[in-house]
Amino acid sequence: MATSSLGFRPSFSVPLPTRPPPGTAAARGSAAAAALRPRLLLLTPLCCSTTPRNRGSLGFLVRASSSSGPSTAEALKFKSIPTKPVEGQKTGTSGLRKKVKVFQQENYLANWIQALFNSLPPEDYKDGLLVLGGDGRYFNREAAQIIIKIAAGNGVGKILVGRDGLMSTPAVSAVIRKRKANGGFIMSASHNPGGPDYDWGIKFNYSSGQPAPESITNEIYGNTLSISEIKIADIPDIDLSSLGVTTYGNFTVEVIDPVSDYQELLECVFDFQLINDLLSRPDFRFIFDAMHAVTGAYAKPIFVDKLGANLKCILNGVPLEDFGHGHPDPI
Hints:
One of its GO terms (biological process) is glucose metabolic process. It is found in: Plastid, Chloroplast. The protein has ten helices and 13 strands. By secondary structure, it is an alpha/beta fold. Strands 2-10-11-6-5-7-8-4 form an eight-stranded mixed beta sheet, with helices on both faces. The two termini are 24 Å apart.
């Protein structure tokens, strides 16, 4: 089986539209971009994968726009927060992983997020669409608010966030592709343990749903060494606990069901009727241990509601910030 350009072996090949990585020559040429039509979609298991102090203000105001549905339309104010480089923000294709206490240091996460925006051509995010989700580990809730505000401060038009900040790694990829987003943030340290004394991580996937290539992560790191300001929107924390739309000026946050788009993709890849027939057999039993990870958010909708399994087949199905002091995903 052929490997992808990033060096890993695809599990399935499904024709899906994509755009080249941000910042490349192909991304700036519509003809070249239109010619790129890779047939790669990584389908991995569901389990795989301190707000900065406001010390300055640009002080300008944007008139609020209207929005339909459950929405709050208010003015959008921007602030510029002076900062300075911090050590240890070397980024790989798996993103940036550190102890939670490191990310909680003043401006540590904010610096990295701003450095990422500084690394991308404006046309790759200005008025664009981004996706945000994570595995539910400790610090995700606070981090999501920081990411949302900095995205707004840098001119992003809209962010799709999984309810409660939850969205598995392959689901983020699927949503990016289906919604034709410019990219997405994944708040996860993969199999590393979660909790106040353990690990946290973040990575950026570009418009194909794949992790940002080394050319981009190297540029992010370079910008962390010279960063001097953080552009941030002065907005309240967004309620991520229920589906809905919140609008400030030209910036919108939509809280979405983290399961539906990914489940739709799974139904295109796997024979759900055949699986349903298996689960309906009286001589077949199975147990799925979600291990209090993000898998728990997907287990009931897919196994029980869609495939007809008994609810008792799901163990530890509630995502917890410390994964119940266990391993964050099945191995």
